[in-house]
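Example pasted here:
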Amino acid sequence: MDFETLVQSRRSVRGFKQDPVPRAVIEAIIDVAKRAPSSMNTQPWHVHVLTGAPLEQVRRRNMQEMVAGAKVKRDIVSHGEYQGIHRTRQVDIAKKLFGAMGIARDDKPMRQDWVLRGFRQFDAPVSLVLTYDRVLDPGAVCHFDLGALCYGIVLAAWDRGLGSVINGQGIMRSDIVREVADIPDDEVIMTCVAMGYPDDTFAANAVRSDREENSEFVRFVGFAD
């Protein structure tokens, strides 16, 4: 599959088969993704790959804490609730997903169940927790670098038949993730990538988010045409 086709076909996967993902496949994915560019070749990233009992413990405790009303405790600074056009785009994709899943606007139990799925990392069999070296904070450069690694992981996984979703909900309680995965204090937990083989019978997996026309966010400067 060529790169353009790979990018166009990739989508977030919110329903996974429970088949285990071989460690060798994950190693191969990371081997590709680690070629991502980083500022001055600093390679500030670390990847903690969870499965089995440790991942189940993170899932269970994260969900229990959030349902009980615990405050979000993430290492990175949150922007808070989205507003304006960003909120509009968030609502638009939610409408698509709920429509595909047959979740009515007033069906609070099913909407709550969807939120809980996010807290459980959509029940994926593998979670890659991405961190960076704390000594590089504050600053957005290492965040940019980690984003490049993250997207490389997602594309390399898709090329090998694996689906993924970049999932901040799954690590709302970063303190729990740090404890269970034994992540050192000198690393900042940024996000996680839930990963597994897609369940093609899960309706939400067919949903594709809309993208703005280039004219809405791209400016060409100095071109004759």
Summary: The chain has a mean pLDDT of 90. The first helix runs from residue 3 to 9. The radius of gyration is 18 Å.
